[in-house]
Write a structure and sequence with these properties.
Distance between the termini: 154 Å
Strand content: under 5%
Radius of gyration: 47 Å
Low-confidence stretches: 1-23, 196-202
Helix content: over 70%
Mean pLDDT: 82
Structural class: mainly alpha
Order of helices and strands: HHHHHHHHHH
Largest sheet: none
Length: about 300
């Protein structure tokens, strides 16, 4: 049962006792009674809803019975979000909503980016919590239904009317926010939708401002994406440059070593050439002496004969 709705019935009864009944008090009281019944019904598991609704309709007076009977069974995703609302788990998301809308209004790109990341993380965490709450009550939320849970919580963060619809705990279908257009909450709640004044139709200046803001945000996203790509490309080039410099240093060092080795080899080659020439000269002299000695030995043998 939603905590605000019994008080609405009590206020209506008190006003009637004090003679302060407005002209439409009967309609307000009927709406309050319907909201109380709807809150009780939407607190049930979805498979229990239809039978319980029909029983409550049968037990109500004719005018109220028709309205109770018209209450629609909630989708699994809407019912999971209703669980979050009744458990009081959406307060953080709705506090973030005000800050996010303020950042959008001020076109504070840095704050908007930070809050957008925070919003996505919070919405995902709350969707997981809603699925877990449903599971604890024996209801399995499918993958597509979980996506609808995330979309609904995100819509509540982005749009005041969606937040009001979600916080009733009587949501019957998922919601979705798209761009700057208001979230469609028609037929989204079983019973009444409290306290969201109708917004005036946007003026041409408002529309122009929204278009300009949207264009600015798109330009910001594109600029941030281009900057990110440029940073990644620069990082790649820097890494290649470091490797190229290291390779160049290695090759220069290697060339220096090879040049020193070449100088040593050239010196050794020159010395070997000089030694070869000296030895060739010595051999020529030794050969001449050997020939002379051979002639002398030959003359000595001839003399003995």
């Amino acid at each position: 049962m939603h905590p605000r709705e019994p008080r609405a019935v009590a206020r209506s009864a008190c006003a009637r006792q004090n003679g302060q009944v407005p002209a439409d008090s009967a309609a307000e009281e009927a709406a309050a009674r319907l909201d109380v019944i709807a809150s009780e019904l939407y607190a049930l598991a979805p498979e229990e809803f239809t039978q319980a609704r029909n029983a409550r309709a049968a037990a109500s007076d004719r005018a109220l019975a028709a309205r109770v009977k018209a209450l629609r069974k909630p989708t699994a995703s809407a019912w999971a979000v209703d669980l979050l609302a009744r458990e009081g788990q959406l307060a953080d998301a709705l506090e973030l909503a005000a800050a996010l809308r303020e950042a959008q209004d001020d076109l504070d790109a840095a704050e908007l980016g930070r809050l957008s990341r925070q919003r996505r993380a919070l919405v995902s965490a709350l969707a997981t919590q809603a699925v877990d709450l449903a599971h604890d009550r024996g209801v399995t939320i499918s993958g597509p239904a979980r996506a609808d849970v995330e979309k609904t919580i995100n819509a509540a963060v982005m749009d005041a009317a969606a937040a009001a619809a979600v916080m009733t705990g009587r949501l019957v279908r998922p919601l979705e926010a798209s761009g700057f257009d208001p979230v469609d909450v028609s037929d989204a709640v079983g019973g009444s939708l409290p306290g969201v004044p109708d917004a005036p139709a946007p003026s041409r200046d408002d529309l122009a401002e929204r278009r300009a803001r949207k264009a600015a945000e798109k330009a910001l996203r594109e600029a941030e994406r281009a900057a990110g790509e440029a940073d990644r490309e620069l990082a790649k080039i820097d890494a290649k440059l470091v490797k190229s410099r290291e390779r160049g240093d290695f090759l220069a060092e290697r060339i220096g070593d090879l040049r020193a080795e070449l100088a040593r080899l050239e010196a050794d080659a020159e010395k070997a050439e000089q030694d070869t020439k000296r030895l060739e000269d010595e051999r020529t002299d030794a050969a001449a002496r050997a020939r002379s000695a051979a002639h002398a030995a030959e003359h000595a043998r001839e003399s003995l004969e």
